[in-house]
Amino acid sequence: MARTLVHRGHKIEVLLDTTVLPDGTTIRRDMVLHPGAVVILPVVDAGHVCLLKNYRFIIDETLWELPAGTLEPGEDPAHAAERELAEETGYTAGRWRKLTAAYASPGCLSEMMHIYAALDLTPGPARPEKDETLEPHVVPWEQALAWALDGTIRDVKTIAGLLLWDRLRGER
User: Fold this and answer.
1) Which of 78, 83, 54, 79 is nearest to 66 (CA)?
2) DSSP letters spanning 53-67
3) Angle, vertex CA 69, rays to CA 65 and CA 72, nearest 5
4) Model confidence over 51-101: pLDDT tens digits?
5) Phi, psi of 31 (to 5 degrees)
6) Pairing between strand 37-45 and 48-56?
7) Separation between Cα atoms, residue 161 and residue 98, nearest integer Å
8) Are 71 and 81 in contact (CB under 8 A)?
């Protein structure tokens, strides 16, 4: 196995992986190494959740999403979740519940997403980064869930977070 660095960016590295399979076949794969991320489901109250309208320049669309962000080198995901929640929504949470950790797209990307529910929220001013175009919106829970199911929400981390919380929220 050999890996060649093709690109080193601000948050990712792109590598070309060359591997010889047990039958002797040589294959090449593109790989994106990512430090991981957090996804936060801000539970405003039993009937409401905070979603973001987030402009994504890569696809030139504005999506409905849960707050999320990339881990800093060596950063604990729980700390990153607190940081990202405050930056993107202004909320701070009195309680946290980790829902899961899952790979975003393991066929080519190493990103592990740590998904949390943020509970007992206290509002405050949002502080998005300069390159973020975010609008926090408090949405009725049933509306957010309907959007996850009808295709209005097209961001997979948001769909996963909403469906997980819908399944788990009654379990304490």
Assistant:
1) 54
2) EEEETTTTEEEEE--
3) 175
4) 999 999 999 999 999 999 999 989 999 999 999 999 999 999 999 999 999
5) -130, 140
6) antiparallel
7) 11
8) no
